[in-house]
Specification:
single chain, Rossmann fold, 4 helices, globular
Length: 160
């Protein structure tokens, strides 16, 4: 809890986060993922992670700090939060980044995260929807299309 809100990381400003907090939470979530996969028989190669806002920042931080653990992620309203990124091979990762066109605080940072993930080898699709920081039906449609893949998008456009 911080300033009346539940947060994954300690926030210094709306766009700056305490780095030790990020690393500790990313490590803890990575451990949770591994444990949940073992207990529930999850195939992490086929698992898609969905994160919104600070949750999206947590997922991207785990991807960068623990490469190979998360291979597919849809990140809604994310921004880069790690000041120092360890060497990370994300060449097997596929990521959807969705920014809100009217999200004046966080949308300007989304392209930096897209570039960061691409620099580390991830295949990244970036989209902007016509909303602010909140999410809604445009996001759901974008995630569904991305999950269905290019073949489904072609089939949908042919029906139109």
């Amino acid at each position: 809890m911080q300033d009346g809100g539940i947060r994954w990381f300690t926030r210094i400003t709306p766009t700056r986060f305490e780095q030790e907090s990020i690393r500790a939470e990313a490590d803890a979530f990575a451990d949770f993922i591994v444990g949940a996969a073992e207990i529930h028989g999850l195939d992490l190669k086929r698992t898609t992670f969905l994160g919104y806002s600070n949750g999206a920042n947590l997922v991207s931080s785990v991807m960068l700090a623990h490469p190979g653990l998360i291979r597919r992620a849809a990140l809604l309203r994310p921004m880069p939060v790690l000041d120092e990124v360890p060497p990370s091979d994300l060449s097997r990762a596929k990521v959807l980044v969705i920014a809100g066109a009217s999200d004046l605080t966080y949308a300007p940072f989304a392209p930096q995260l897209v570039e960061l993930l691409r620099r580390h080898g991830a295949e990244v699709e970036a989209r902007t929807v016509g909303s602010g920081h909140e999410f809604g039906t445009e996001d759901a449609r974008a995630v569904r299309e991305w999950l269905a893949g290019p073949a489904a998008a072609v089939a949908l456009s042919q029906k139109s």
